[in-house]
Design a protein that fits this description.
It contains 6 helices and 4 strands; from the N terminus they run αβαβαβαβαα. Strands 2-1-3-4 form a 4-stranded parallel β-sheet, sandwiched between helices. Helix 2 packs across helix 5 (122-142). The protein has a single domain (15-159), classed as Rossmann fold, CATH 3.40.50. Strand 3 (71-76), helix 4 (87-105) and strand 4 (112-116) form a beta-alpha-beta unit. By secondary structure, it is α/β, with parallel strands linked by helices.
């Protein structure tokens, strides 16, 4: 194959793996509403329902990255609307601190996001997911040598 043809041939894009921690009371219901209304959003996200966004431990987020997640989205009730009074304030504080520390682990800050989505905001949920997927794709394309996570052990790591 000539160089000009070989340079135009690209490896197939790998499927992103995004983990979403969703508050049971608001964000999960918003995602469910998006599904009921048949709104289209990225299929790359895998949802984990948690009682409250305040229960998402930053070490759990780091474990997701270590196990190969390309992005982590934490979604909860709007401030002031938490069913557990102030759980979303704890989540906001923890995720802001973690986002500042991601640089020390070699993880792009755009790969972690915290959003507030209520039960009646199915369209907002679809928009949040699509925007986050676009940001994670951009972060992955800019990553040196395709290094996306702390300890990647799947077939894409072997292809390097």
């Amino acid at each position: 194959m000539s160089k000009s043809v070989a340079s135009n041939v690209r490896a197939p894009a790998r499927k992103l793996r995004i983990v979403g921690f969703l508050c049971n009371w608001c964000s999960y219901a918003g995602a469910d509403l998006a599904g009921v209304n048949r709104l289209q959003y990225g299929h790359e996200i895998r949802i984990i329902r948690v009682p409250c966004s305040g229960r998402v431990n930053p070490l759990l987020v780091l474990k997701c990255f270590q196990e190969g997640a390309d992005g982590v989205l934490v979604a909860g009730c709007h401030p002031g609307d938490c069913h557990y009074q102030d759980g979303n304030y704890y989540a906001r504080r923890r995720m802001l601190v973690l986002q500042e520390l991601l640089h020390f682990f070699g993880i792009d800050r755009r790969r972690l996001r915290l959003h507030w989505v209520s039960a009646s905001e199915g369209a907002k949920w679809a928009e949040v997911v699509d925007n986050f997927i676009a940001d994670v794709k951009a972060a992955c394309e800019e990553a040196p040598d395709g290094a996306l996570s702390l300890d990647r052990t799947d077939e894409t790591a072997d292809a390097r």
